[in-house]
């Protein structure tokens, strides 16, 4: 998304910008319904409450937060004061996320550049409010990590059902860098980006967070070459020790793993690692490696490259879409021959991350120990990574 430069202004408008899309709200609602059907009785949702920054149990949240946000975000607001909108100066619209508009702005109190993600929703829709609160809770749980975008504050008023999330300002995203004059990354540069991505994901997973939308346009890079995972609008909590049904209606199509396309509601870190494998291939080839236009075509492209599951899988599978999406003929895996001109260690890592069986993809921590990162040429320093003009984020 290109920049939209214009006259700067303090944030006083309450126009209907960045309305929560119906698809995103339906995703959240579908996930809630699946959880209720699974438990068969109403219980508190642990994914909206556990692991948030703790204060005194039952402590009143500081005065100034609107009641609807207190009701759904609870302890995640402890220790924070709501920021005032008139202490920020909008400079330019720089992006559009899953359900919001993003602006570059100046924090007039701290005199520094920030990014403001404006979210607005209609009426007092409980599920919409919970969806917004979940992103705040997740971002606060993730805290301050060098490879994860940091939430620095929230701007809201009692008079409106909209809010701004205040983030550190990042110069551009990985997709924009690659698309700039057909930049071709070197192997050390790709290793540097991938190392940072996997460290950020390992941090998320270790705190029980699935990102669920890993792609190049969600990987922001600052002027010093530091990569940060961003846009946690589709993220959720997970517990590897306790299987809870989750929606399969997540992850941008080009980066969506086969188990989600087949309708699985039970998954873990493998969905993010598949996205990492797609990003790795994209950085080497300069384009998405499996660009399907529909879910059926996407699954077909996956099977053509990565091979289709065994006959036993199809006979035993209880996944909702298994019967209708089973290929007419089996496909053998041709990943190594397709990418024969890439470094062998890179293809080896892709081979693991793009395993048809999610469990074989391993973890982000294991991927960081892969031969790809431990053999020459080694990753370059982030400061030597290529840059592009600011405000070119997608």
Keywords:
394 residues; nucleotide-binding; Transferase(Phosphotransferase), domain 1; Ser/Thr_kinase_AS; 11 strands; alpha+beta; Phosphorylase Kinase, domain 1
* Class inferred from helices and paired strands: alpha+beta
| Biggest β-sheet: strands ordered side by side in the sheet | 1-2-3-4-6-5
Largest sheet: 6 strands, antiparallel
Residue-averaged pLDDT, rounded?
A: 85
Beta-strand residue percentage: 5-15%
Q: What's the CATH topology label of the largest domain?
A: Transferase(Phosphotransferase), domain 1
Low-confidence stretches: 1-8, 12-25, 39-61
Which CATH architecture of the largest domain would you pick?
Orthogonal Bundle
Instruction: Note the quaternary state here.
Output: single chain
Give me the strand/helix succession: EHHEEEHEEEHHEEEEHHHHHHHHH
Count of distinct structural domains: 2
Pfam family, one: Pkinase
Protein name: Protein kinase domain-containing protein
Domain Protein kinase: 88-373
InterPro entries: CDK, Kinase-like_dom_sf, Prot_kinase_dom, Protein_kinase_ATP_BS, Ser/Thr_kinase_AS
């Amino acid at each position: 998304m290109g920049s939209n430069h214009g006259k700067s202004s303090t944030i006083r408008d309450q126009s209907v910008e960045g309305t929560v899309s119906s698809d995103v709200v339906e995703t959240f609602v579908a996930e809630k319904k699946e959880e209720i059907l699974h438990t068969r009785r109403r219980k508190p949702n642990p994914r909206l409450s556990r692991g948030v920054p703790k204060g005194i149990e039952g402590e009143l949240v500081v005065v100034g937060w609107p009641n609807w946000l207190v009701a759904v975000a609870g302890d995640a607001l402890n220790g924070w004061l709501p920021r005032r909108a008139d202490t920020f100066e909008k400079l330019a619209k720089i992006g559009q996320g899953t359900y919001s508009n993003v602006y570059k702005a100046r924090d007039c109190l701290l005199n520094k550049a920030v990014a403001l993600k404006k979210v607005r929703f209609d009426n007092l829709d409980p599920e919409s409010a919970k969806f917004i609160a979940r992103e705040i809770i997740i971002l606060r749980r993730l805290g301050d990590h060098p490879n994860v975008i940091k939430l620095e504050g929230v701007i809201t008023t009692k008079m409106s059902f909209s809010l701004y999330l205040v983030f550190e300002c990042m110069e551009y995203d990985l997709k924009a860098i690659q698309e700039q004059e057909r930049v071709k990354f070197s192997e050390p540069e790709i290793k540097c980006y991938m190392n940072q991505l996997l460290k950020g994901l390992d941090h998320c997973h270790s705190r029980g967070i699935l990102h669920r939308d890993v792609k190049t346009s969600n990987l922001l890079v600052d002027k010093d070459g530091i990569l940060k995972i961003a846009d946690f609008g589709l993220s959720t909590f997970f517990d590897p020790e306790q299987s809870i049904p989750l929606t399969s209606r997540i992850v941008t199509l080009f980066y969506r793993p086969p188990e989600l396309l087949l309708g699985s509601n039970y998954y873990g870190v493998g969905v993010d690692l598949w996205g990492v494998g797609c990003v790795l291939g994209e950085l080497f080839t300069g384009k998405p490696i499996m660009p399907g236009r529909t879910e059926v075509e996407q699954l077909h492209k996956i099977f053509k490259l990565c091979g289709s599951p065994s006959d036993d899988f199809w006979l035993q599978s209880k996944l909702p879409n298994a019967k209708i999406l089973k290929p007419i003929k089996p496909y053998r895996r041709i990943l190594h021959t397709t990418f024969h001109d890439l470094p062998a260690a890179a293809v080896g890592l892709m081979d693991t991350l793009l395993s048809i069986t999610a469990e074989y993809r391993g973890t982000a921590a294991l991927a960081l120990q892969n031969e790809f990162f431990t053999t020459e040429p080694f990753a370059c320093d982030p400061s030597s990574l290529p840059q592009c003009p600011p405000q070119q984020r997608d």
